[in-house]
Every structure is written in structure tokens, then in C-alpha cells.
Amino acid sequence: MQVSYASRFDGISGSAIRDIFKLLTNPSIISFAGGNPASSALEPGRISQFAQEVLAENGVNILQYGQSEGYAPLRESAATFFRHNAVEARPDQVLPLAGSQQGLDLICKALLNPGDAMLVESPAFLGALQTFKLYQARLVPIEMDEGGAIVEDIERKIIAERPKLIYLIPTFQNPTGRTLALERRRRVAEIARMHGVTIIEDDPYCDLRYRGEALPAIKSFDKGDNVLYLNSFSKIISPGLRVAAVVCTDEEMMRKLVVGKQSTDVHSPNLNQAIIDRYLRSGLLSEHIELICASYAAQMSKMLEMLEGFPESVRFTRPDGGIFLWCELPEGFSATELLPEATRRGVAYIPGDHFYARPGAHHNTLRLNFSNASLENIEKGMLILKELLIEKGL
Amino acid sequence: MQVSYASRFDGISGSAIRDIFKLLTNPSIISFAGGNPASSALEPGRISQFAQEVLAENGVNILQYGQSEGYAPLRESAATFFRHNAVEARPDQVLPLAGSQQGLDLICKALLNPGDAMLVESPAFLGALQTFKLYQARLVPIEMDEGGAIVEDIERKIIAERPKLIYLIPTFQNPTGRTLALERRRRVAEIARMHGVTIIEDDPYCDLRYRGEALPAIKSFDKGDNVLYLNSFSKIISPGLRVAAVVCTDEEMMRKLVVGKQSTDVHSPNLNQAIIDRYLRSGLLSEHIELICASYAAQMSKMLEMLEGFPESVRFTRPDGGIFLWCELPEGFSATELLPEATRRGVAYIPGDHFYARPGAHHNTLRLNFSNASLENIEKGMLILKELLIEKGL
Predict the structure, then answer these.
(1) A320: domain CATH number?
(2) Which of A111, A187, B276, B305 would suit a FRET pair with B242, their CA atoms being 20 to 30 Å apart?
(3) Do B123 and B365 meet the contact criterion of CB atoms below 8 Å apart?
């Protein structure tokens, strides 16, 4: 059939990354490409137990239609859980979501008209960039350094571009692993308030800290209800269950998000929300997070140790947590062009250019994920990568 | 915070119906307002058993990230299941969804620009109307009679309004319970092909037939890949699990739907898809459907029997299945205005005006749901309604 598609799809193929991931269904490839938790961090037995319990206790309600606002017990337990990130919210200010990505979609739905400006980190999470592009946002990159997004640049661009939204992953950012410094958190909240701009604080990695002190969320400095705080249970419990939540302290905005959710999927599945609620109330989660942190810390150390063995012209980040490292090859090297040969030799990564709002100028960068590869495979995969780069003249 | 919301929210409150449903949390009210399956039709024990089995057999994959295209076994079992509606599709032409509502959202995302025309039944499913309005569709009502949407009117309006989409619930329509006649199904598919228009065939009630012969889906007459076929497991298994699927035989359209899904929620939760897949493969579903049909048929008969006792000036539909009846009061009566008094007396319904693309002119209509009320409550609630109407001069 010949149809004309919506103009929001102009220039959206969704294919570059999808093609990489399809390639990775080959199990013999060591993949540093995804953002998956370790399979060993997943707990089918425990989740099955929780599913049985909630269905035995409250089965008919769980299988019946639920509310767009979310499963009430989870709104409560999530509000309590988020306090350890210094996010204070009442249960009715927490909206459970089918993953954080849905939060991005609903926030854009509530706020963006085509052509509205939006500030994004440079580089930024590519899944978020795709959502913003589908809402025809005019993406304005923010400069970053080792301390995360540069606040002076944010303020300059707020004044010049009048954005509606600022999108930040302040802790162990995807793709760089960088963390927004404490003082910058305070200042960016203040600047957003002064200029009436909304911040999306996307915080799925905050519990995966391997060293240093936890930092309070930007949301904790939010005096004008300008910050929408997204957190997810994908990295600490299970991505396949698709449960996250947004904290929204502005009542009118919450109403828009709920109406958007109602018209998008009616409500999130009750069973998944009840399982996460049960986990949060079980008292078992902090121990589980400690366990996965110990393991991811060792994986990160191994990957950093291997990178130390690369020629000095390769630069890379040294995060305090999360699941990603970011590498810059010398100018002239193209991670995009090297990928097919790398995968032929058995190792994959994501070329960094995909993480830029304006791609085409960052082919010398790449993102490496360490959470879903064994120490042995990290060693093996990084050696393959090093050899390949040296052969190519590094 | 003062923010300017997206213009797609202009004129959308989402509140009228939400307020009615909030009122219904009062358990002493007999509700004919919702669209819920009977609580007795839900099977927590069986679902718990399936959850245990799939987590025991394939737990790590189920809890890990899945694919935007859906859980592969479900794509296959759903394709097989849809054959009994004469819908023939390969597994890769089936996209699992988080409920049919998500299908409406993704189809609009793929196709609609603001102001694009769209034909909708008059009256039409109000949840769908809200989604279409959020995509700023120009809604054009189609005339209906006892045989469903009138095909001549559809063709006339295709020529006059150049719509991109036609939205139909051909079987036991929400809200009227009407079924699109066989010959009209063939003709509407042909007309859509001739004019290059896409039909959304929303078919969640087709398995709830209490008399008469099953009719083939419009999709079965689709020779040009113009029909997107939506089916849901909400009414026959569980709405709280949020699993539905769209059959899309056009490859380019499927790619848009998948990219839209990826950017909206990454993928549907694997556990829910695996549970439904297990149910479809168990061989137990047809027996379960027979059981609920027997019960719903008795409930519908009871409600029709009660309506027969109303003064003759009340007109109502006599569906062959589904979960809704549609009533027309004499001109001058307002179901909208009567609702507060009806709920005070202990019975609720949805005023029919909400189901029109252009509300304001149909206050004498109402929708009655019978699937979630006992025979006793149907008798009691309908007597309350009858008394109220007679008091008001019926």
C-alpha cells in the first residue's frame, strides 16, 4: 500500500542501532554494545515467588483493569524508595510507568510542539534522542566536561534558544559514565526555576555506585516544581518487567501525564507493578543492589585495566558507577567504520556518533558497556579491540 | 510552575469520564459504566501457574531486555489464534502491544499529522476518540444503522474529506453492541483499497458471541494491505496484564509501528507476553471462552428482559455478543443530567454524549455494560433506572 506517513517520521529510520543489535543475536560475539544488566543479576526464582504471592493475595484486582495513575501500593513504596536519593514526594506525585522511555514519551506529549527547542547533553542517550526527534524537537547540544553538563552553557543556551525542556542523566550518564557535580546540580535547578524551563532528570543508574559518596538528585534542589524525576527498576531488578516511575510535584503537569498515559496504554500492567512493590517492601533490595554493585565494580575495573594497556592516544572516562565507559580515539579513526571488522573478530560496541543530536562529527568515539560481560570476556574482547586498533595504525 | 503545554492538549481535559469512574470506587454502586470483564472470569490461580512455568523455563530471558517486535513465541501463537477470525498472518506480521489502546497510539503516531481527517463511527469508543484528538485528528463521524457503519456514507466522506484513517469496531461495537454486516465488511475493505485509505479494525469483542454465526474480519477481505487488525486478550483473559496485538501486513508500516513502539516503551513486558503465549498454547482457552460466554449471555438476556419492561419510548440495541447495550431515551431526556441522581440511588452508566466526535447533541443516549454485574444486581439496577426515568416523566 502507498501511504504518506506522519511528518514526525521524516529522517527517522531507527535502523542504525537496530541493525547493530540484530547482529548481536549471534551469541559468539562478545558484546559491549548493549545496556543490559548481567544475566546473573536477574532472579527468576524470587520474581516467580513474588508473582505467586501477589496473585494469591490480590489476584482478581491485579488481573482486572487498573488505574492510569498506577498501582496504589507501588506509588507509596516507590515514593519511600526514592527518598534515599533525596527525592521527597507524596505517593500521588509518583506515576508508575512502563519503563523510563515511556516517561520521556509522555513528557514530550505533554509539552512539545514541533520545533520547540530542547537542550540535551552532548553526547546524550540515543534512545531519548529518538523519542525527542519523533516529537520534532529542535535539539540543542549542551557542552560537557568531566563534571557533566556545563551549567554556564546551559544558561547561555536557555537565553539564546528559549527551550521548553532540558534533558539530563546526572549520575553515571549514558553514554559517558560522567556524573554531574554537586554544585552544578544545585545551580541547574535554580537556573531552570529562574527561566521557567522544565528539567527531565533521568536517573536509572544512581544506585549502581562503586566508589565515592552518593549525590542528591537535582530534584532535591527543585524549589519551583521544575524538575521531573525519572527512575527505573530496569537496572536494579529487571528490564523485562518494564517498571519505572516519574516523580512530578506539579499538579497540572501530573494531570497531563496521566491523561497522556491513559490515551497511550490505559495503565501499566498491575502484575508487574505489584511484583516491584513486593520487592521494595521485602527489605531484600539493598542487599541485592550490594551484590550486583560488587560484581559490576569488578567488571568496570577489569575494563579500565585493559584500557590502560591501550596506546595513550586513546582517552576514556573513569566513572564512579553505572554500566558504561566512553572512549575517544585519535582524530581520523572511525569507530563507525571499524565496527564491521570488530564484530567479524568477535567484539561489538556502539559507535559514539549515534549519541549526538547532530551526528556526523564524532566518528572517533565509542561507548563500551561492561555489565553484561564476564571478566574473561572483557579481557578477551578488549584485547581484540586493542589489536584491531593497533593494526589500523593507533 | 507556569508552563505552556503542547497544543495537542488544547480542549482535552480527560476529566468527564475519569470523574465518573472515580465515583465508582464506591462499592455500593451498581455499575453499568465500565467495560470490565466479570471478576469471576479472571483466573489468578491459572495465571500464577503459567507465570511460574515460564519463569522456571525461560526466566533469565523473560527478565532481560526483550525486542520491540515482541516476544517471538507470542508472535507465533497469536498469528495462529487469529486464524479463527479468518485473519491470516505470518508471525513477523504480528506486533504484540501493551493493550489495543497502544495500537491506536502507535498507528496515529505513524500516520497522522495535525488536521488530518479520520472517519469514526457515530457513536464511537471514547478512549479511541481521546487518542485521536491528542493527535489532533479532524474527526469525521460516519452514520450507522443496525448493520453497523453505512458503507455509502464512508465512501462519500472519503471522497469529500480525504481521510487517512477509518476507525471501526466491526463486531459488538463499543458502545452500541452493533455488528458490521458481512457484505459491508467486504465492501469497506474494497473501498479502502480503491481510495488508498487505512482501516483500523479494532476487534476485542469478537470471541464474545452469544448467538449467530461468527463473521470473518474485515482484514480477511483486505487485498491491498490497507487494514490494520487489532485484537486484545483483555476481554477474554485479563485486562490487567495489558496484552494485545496488531496484525500489519504492510512491511513499511510495520517498521514505523516498531520504531514508534521502541521510542514509546522500548518493548512490552516479556512476562506478560509469555503468560498469554502459554495460555494460547495450553489448549484451555476455548473452554474458558465458552464459560464466560455462557455467563455473559445470561447477563445480557437479563438486562434486555429488564429493558423490555421500560416504557416503549426507550429504544435499545439487541446485540449478538460483546459486553454493551446502547439506549436512546426520548428527545428531551438527558442521560448526562440524570447521572448524578442515578448514582445517588445506587446505579451508574456512561452518558452517551461522550461517545460522539462532536458531543453536545446526544444527551438522550447512554451506554450500559452488563459483563461485570450479577444477575441480581442487573435486575436491581435496571429497576432503579426505570423508576427514575418514570419519575422524570418517561
Answers:
(1) 3.90.1150.10
(2) A111
(3) yes
The count of domains in chain B is: 2
Chain B interface, best mutation among A2, A4, A5, by max B CB count within 10 A: A5
A positions 3-42 inside 8 Å of B (CB): 3-9, 12-14, 18, 34-37, 39, 42
How many other C-beta atoms are found inside a 10 Å radius of the C-beta of residue A5?
18
Closest by Cα among A367, A205, A382 to A302: A382
In 3D space, the residue among A104, A218, A103 whose CA is nearest the CA of residue A170 turns out to be A218
A23 pLDDT above the threshold of 90: no
Please report whether residue A58 resides in a domain.
Answer: no
A112 and A205, same domain (yes or no): yes
Q: Which of B39, B52, B113 sits opposite A48 (nearest CB)?
A: B52
B72 touches chain A (CB under 8 A): no
Burial pattern A294-324, b for ≥16 Cβ within 10 A else e, equals ebbbebbebbbebbeebeeebebbebbbbbb
**The pLDDT of residue A269 is above 90:** yes
Distance from CA of A390 to the nearest CA of B (A): 34
Structural domain ending residue among the three candidates A282, A304, A338: A282
Task: Give contacts of B131 with chain A, Cβ < 8 Å.
Answer: 263-264
Show residues of chain A in contact with B7, CB under 8 Å: 113
Q: Which residues 239-268 of A are in CB contact (within 8 Å) with B?
A: 239-242, 250, 253, 255-256, 258-260, 262-268
At A100, the amino acid letter reads S
Q: Residue B47: pLDDT above 80? A: yes
Q: Is the pTM of this model over 0.95?
A: yes
| Segment A207-264, tens digit of pLDDT | 999 999 999 999 999 999 999 999 999 999 999 999 999 999 999 999 999 999 999 9
Classify residue A219: in a domain, yes or no.
Answer: yes
Look up residue B106 and give its three cell numbers.
Answer: 502507535
The residue type found at A6 is A
What's the CA gap between B142 and B166, in Å, rounded?
Answer: 9
Same domain, A33 and A163: no
